[in-house]
Specification:
By secondary structure, this protein is of the alpha/beta class. It contains twelve helices and eleven strands. The chain is globular.
Length: 301
């Protein structure tokens, strides 16, 4: 069975980027066109290929087809290159399931865990913009989220803000931005993305350039790996300042633009039913946040 390359590229883009809109932008077509291509491919295969959601995910058949499409693209690129075509107790401590964003885990949340003995932590790692969904489904007892409004049945406490710096190695800056940061150079220069839910790079680009820009991207689902990749010159990305401060001070990482850091407000949300039992953890979380996150005047003191 032969497949339309446009249909396969649309499928791969949706599963890689997580939304029809982002896929459409990367392919320079409309979301409707992407939807039509996916529908045509599903009709040809005779089965669903995409699970619609935020982000979109693939069925088993969809993932296999997308992988095939990406493999073909890699092989074509290789050929083009070669042709120069350019506790101390007997009882087991209880488990506690929490949704935490990876950057908080890497920079300040473990201190709160260590300050709360008697628990076995079961951490769900998810983007701060999506972690509240785990609370809504009743799948976790607490979460660090970027949503300040309390989830139904939960108490919410502001934690402060995590500061992110759009940063890259000096060599990367010289290679890609020697003529300055423009929409054109940013469209070509590789960026780093944590996963399909990671919108920090797009948010920073839109804030400072006022338009949608979809650069080529490395997907690196590790906070430390993300920072290491930036220092190695693989791409630019939004790194937590708390993590890369030594690299910024030494000059192995530099900001893309001066005074352009992005601050993301974080909130600790706890199921109201569990709030009393988790009060020691909440105190530890708030204490660690005060030490490591940017505190607005209302939270200082």
């Amino acid at each position: 069975m032969k497949f339309d390359p446009n249909h396969l590229s649309a499928l791969a883009a949706v599963l890689r980027l997580g939304t029809f809109e982002a896929a459409a932008h990367s392919l320079s077509v409309t979301p409707s066109a992407v939807s039509q291509r996916i529908k045509a491919l599903e009709e040809r295969i005779g089965t669903a290929l995409v699970k619609r959601g935020l982000p979109c995910t693939g069925t088993e058949a969809g993932l296999r087809l997308a992988k095939h499409a990406e493999d073909v693209a890699v092989l074509e690129g290789l050929v083009s290159s070669e042709l120069s075509l350019d506790q101390n107790s007997q009882e087991m401590p209880p488990h506690l399931r929490i949704a935490v964003n990876a950057d908080s885990l890497a920079t300040w949340f473990i201190a709160a865990m260590a300050a709360t003995p008697g628990l076995l932590f079961d951490l769900v790692i998810d983007d701060q913009d999506h972690s509240a969904d785990w609370l809504k489904r009743g799948e976790v007892s607490a979460a660090i989220t970027s949503h300040s409004a309390p989830v139904t049945g939960c108490n919410a406490k502001p934690l402060g803000a995590m500061r992110y710096e759009a940063s890259a190695s000096p060599a990367f800056m010289e290679n890609w931005f020697s003529k300055g940061l423009t929409p054109e150079t940013l469209t070509r220069a590789p960026c780093l993305i944590f996963n399909a839910k990671d919108a920090l790079q797009r948010r920073w680009l839109h804030r400072h350039f006022g338009q949608e820009i979809t650069p080529p991207a490395h997907f690196i689902p590790s906070t430390q790996g993300f920072a290491d990749a930036a220092q190695a010159g693989l791409g630019w990305g939004m790194n937590p300042v708390k993590l890369i401060e030594p690299a910024l001070n030494s000059g192995t990482l530099v900001p893309l633009l001066p005074d352009s850091a992005l601050e993301i407000d974080l909130t600790w949300q706890v199921s109201r039913v569990m709030s009393s039992a988790l009060a020691p953890l909440t105190r530890a979380v708030l204490s660690s946040a005060r030490q490591h996150l940017i505190q607005p005047p209302a939270l200082r003191g």
